[in-house]
């Protein structure tokens, strides 16, 4: 078994950080100095190392590229006013990564490799964690099948890699979303509940069509009846109708978001009425019509809260109340930001100090 002390560390002798204003970079395009890699072969994780972030030679026959045995995670680290770095709920990401691994017939990553690699990497690249109010270091752990072989079978070799990039605000404006009833993100018995790379590839065409019509994202509906909302883009969905917080109940077609889980925990703690159940498009549009739909928003690591300002359905746009009137989601956004930046007490022990 690999332990943290087995991680071979090869530091860069020339940091690239001075090339960027890390408090002001486009999302996902500027990578920090180092990356963590663990290699799986002969039925076990054999070696792990940190090396300068770089391109690596890879065969065009690499099986992940052809058959999609590729899974990933997304999480964030934050810097408080004292310059200390902490990661938001990393064990949740580890658990979900391993759930994805099982479903995709890939090896699970042991805790000591995931957490050991993550902590060593963040210690080395702590300077890359933005200190701005809305900044964070986005962390991308992923596993890919690395057999050099054509032929549909599960790979015998894999790499678990962690790369990171400074990130600012994901959406600068509230978003317009389109209810999608022709194409589906996930189907029962499929892989919608895990973070398999193919889920994202298949979502691009319907998203492109929606964007051509002036929407930023789609609202995915269930593939059986097209009547129930599931997620929006790569976010879980939430609504405030009257005084109740509503969100679609989890199933094998919905990703169990860590932001979703955190929002529900906070809402429960505040004594808010919560309903996790099937939510039909008709229910949402009826509530919009009679003035009961107070808030609609997506929740996820990248955006935290993405306010939805209008919902397109059957050729009509349904406008929602202005963002500054939305008491619950604004309070959630502020509370999560304050917990992450160490400005208020971390009552739920969500932050993992590096
Ligand atoms: C399909 C999908 N739904 C929801 C989420 C939100 O999950 P989390 O809050 O863990 O980022 C994500 C992002 O990971 C996603 O890809």
Describe the structure concisely for a colleague.
This protein is of the alpha+beta class and 354 residues long.
Q: Helices, strands, pairings?
A:
Elements (H helix, E strand, L loop, with lengths): L7 E2 L24 E8 L2 E9 L10 H5 L2 E3 L2 E5 L5 E4 L1 H14 L7 H14 L11 E10 L12 E10 L7 E6 L16 H5 L2 H9 L4 E5 L7 E4 L2 E7 L2 E5 L9 H12 L3 E5 L3 H9 L3 E8 L3 E10 L2 E4 L7 H14 L10 E3 L1
Parallel strand pairs: 1-3, 9-10, 9-16, 13-14
Antiparallel strand pairs: 2-3, 2-8, 4-7, 5-6, 5-7, 6-18, 7-8, 10-11, 11-12, 12-13, 12-15, 15-16, 16-17
The structure holds pyridoxal-5'-phosphate (PLP).
Task: Report on this structure.
The chain has 354 residues and is of the alpha+beta class. The protein has eight helices and 18 strands. Strands 1, 2, 3, 4, 5, 6, 7, 8 and 18 form a nine-stranded mixed beta sheet that branches. The longest helix has 14 residues. The radius of gyration is 21 Å and the shape is globular. The relative contact order is 0.14. The mean pLDDT is 96. Bound molecules: pyridoxal-5'-phosphate (PLP).
């Amino acid at each position: 078994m690999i332990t943290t002390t087995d991680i071979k560390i090869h530091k860069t002798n020339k940091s690239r950080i001075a090339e960027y204003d890390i408090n002001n970079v486009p999302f996902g395009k500027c990578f920090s100095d180092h990356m963590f890699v663990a290699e799986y072969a002969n039925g076990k994780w054999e070696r792990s190392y940190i090396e300068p972030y770089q391109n690596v030679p890879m065969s065009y026959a690499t099986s992940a590229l052809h058959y999609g045995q590729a899974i990933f995670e997304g999480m964030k680290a934050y810097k408080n006013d004292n310059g200390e770095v902490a990661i938001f709920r990393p064990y949740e990401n580890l658990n979900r990564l391993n759930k994805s691994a099982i479903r995709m017939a890939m090896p699970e990553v042991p805790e000591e490799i995931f957490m050991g690699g993550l902590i060593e990497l963040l210690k080395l690249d702590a300077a890359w964690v933005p200190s701005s109010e809305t900044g964070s270091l986005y962390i991308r752990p992923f596993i890919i099948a690395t057999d050099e072989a054509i032929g549909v079978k599960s790979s015998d070799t894999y790499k678990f890699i962690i790369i990171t990039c400074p990130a600012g605000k994901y959406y600068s404006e509230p978003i317009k979303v389109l209810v999608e009833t022709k194409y589906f993100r996930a189907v029962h018995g499929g892989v919608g509940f895990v973070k398999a790379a193919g889920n994202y590839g298949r979502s691009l065409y319907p998203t492109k069509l929606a964007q051509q019509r002036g929407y930023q994202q789609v609202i995915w509906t269930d593939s059986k009846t097209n009547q129930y909302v599931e997620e929006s883009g790569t976010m879980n969905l939430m609504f405030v109708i009257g005084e109740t917080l509503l969100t679609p109940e989890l199933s094998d077609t919905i990703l169990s978001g860590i932001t979703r889980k955190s929002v529900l925990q906070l809402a429960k703690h505040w004594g808010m009425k919560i309903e996790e159940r099937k939510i039909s498009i008709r229910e949402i549009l009826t509530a919009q019509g009679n003035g009961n739909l107070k808030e609609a928003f997506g929740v996820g690591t990248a955006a935290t809260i993405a306010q939805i300002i209008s919902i397109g359905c059957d050729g009509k746009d349904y406008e929602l109340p202005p963002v500054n009137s939305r008491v619950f989601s604004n309070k959630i956004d502020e509370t999560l930001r304050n917990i992450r930046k160490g400005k208020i007490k971390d009552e739920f022990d969500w932050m993992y100090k590096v």
